Amino acid sequence: MNRRNFLGLLSAVSLLSPSWLMAAPLPGVSHCTLRHQGDLTSLVLDLAGPVQYQVFTLSAPDRVVIDLHGVAAHLPPGALNFAGTPVQGLRSGPTKTGMRLVLDMHQPAKAQARLVSMGGGHQRLLVDLPVGHAAALMARHAPAHGPRQRPAVIAIDAGHGGKDPGAVSGTRHYEKTVVLGIATALHQQLSRDPRFHPTMSRDSDFFVPLHQRVLLAHQRRADMLVSIHADAAPSRSARGASVYVLSAHGATSAMARYIAESENSSDAYAGVFDSTLSNDDPMVSKVLVDMSMNATIASSLDLGRMVLGHFKQVTNIHQSRVEQAGFAVLKSPDIPSILVEHGFMSNPYDCGRLISHRHQVELAQALHTSIGDYFHKYPVHVA
Ligand SMILES: [Zn+2]
């Protein structure tokens, strides 16, 4: 999509009536298939009611993003057949207003969407994915195995390390040591689970700058980032676990900074938005990245709620709702990211538990279960 079309689409969307926001219950996607005829592949979504949508493409890696507004964030079960198509995989996740679908493409594709009325209030959204002839030939000769799910890559980020001890308890216990214990236990558990491929930003006591942690997650193509911490508070009485995700406000200024940083480099951040757009119009890039970020925050909130639900079984909860703040380590525009404070180093009761191996393993198990729940709800499909 060129810039003018994209901006046209944005202004069209902003004029839409918000009445669908009030409707309850939300209609859902009743059927989802990939249709492949000749050189043309189309994603076919059947919907039980009216829908507003936006479709745009991103490059490096090539993706087609479909945002559906006013629908329930749930895809019907059943695998898609990607064989012989330019589509590599399909991901989905909730957004503030509905659901986002991301098609991972083998090669650049244009995307043309149209809505067809099927009668009885039912609608069909067709997203045509025309690719060049050479690309179509390549896709046809791709190995024709059936659809499957690949292991989800989980970036486990143990906070602090090396010269940065993190929070220090009255008894001189360091946050950096506690969080490495929990991170290591989580890594061991996920390694034994075929659904996951865990990777750590540090596996011993060394310092990693915050932006490097985000960069590592991108370089390792993580599907999720879990940053592991333990709090400190001026009052010794504060105790229990909290979960944080990025606030949209923080994201906006953070991405502006990332855009500036990536302008003269080809680092991994450049891959999260269309680099041609970023070079000649920073405003449009920012809009694209913010749209991506807002969708990611909604997914992160969902994951955060799952973690709090499972943490209730093993520890006290400090904040019963997922909190939002501008943590630098959470500023990935397209990876659901949470920061978990597992308890207070400054609270003698919490600290006593946090330094015990048994409790570290228990917390890691609760994280493991939550991550499992998340990918059960939003599986990663590949061809
Ligand atoms: Zn910390």
Concise overview:
This protein is α+β, with helices and mostly antiparallel strands and about 375 residues long.
How would you describe this structure to a colleague?
The protein is of the alpha+beta class and 383 residues long. It is 34% helix and 27% strand. It is built from ten helices and 16 strands. A six-stranded antiparallel beta sheet has the order 3-4-6-5-16-9. It has a six-stranded mixed beta sheet with strand order 11-10-12-15-13-14, with helices on both faces. A four-stranded antiparallel beta sheet has the order 1-2-8-7, with no helix packed on it. Strand 3 and strand 4 (63-69) form a beta hairpin. Helix 4 packs across helix 10 and helix 8 (282-311) packs across helix 10 (357-377). The longest helix is centred in the C-terminal third of the chain and has 30 residues, at 282-311. It binds zinc ion. The site of zinc ion has 5 residues, from loops.
Main β-sheet description: 6 strands, antiparallel
Radius of gyration, whole Å: 22 Å
So what's the CATH class of the largest domain? Answer: Alpha Beta
Average of the residue pLDDT scores: 78
Distance N to C terminus: 25 Å
Number of domains: 2
CATH architect. name of the largest domain? 3-Layer(aba) Sandwich
Q: CATH superfamily of the largest domain, called what?
A: Zn-dependent exopeptidases
User: What's the CATH topology name of the largest domain?
Assistant: Aminopeptidase
Strand content: 25-35%
Tally of DSSP β-strands: 16
What ions, cofactors and ligands are bound?
Answer: zinc ion
Share of helical residues: 25-40%
> What's the number of helices?
10
Q: Which residues form runs of ≥5 with pLDDT under 50? A: 1-23, 250-285
Categorize the overall geometry: elongated
Structural class: alpha+beta
Succession of helices and strands: HHEEEEEEEEHEEHEHEEHHHEEHHE
What is the strand arrangement across the widest sheet?
A: 3-4-6-5-16-9
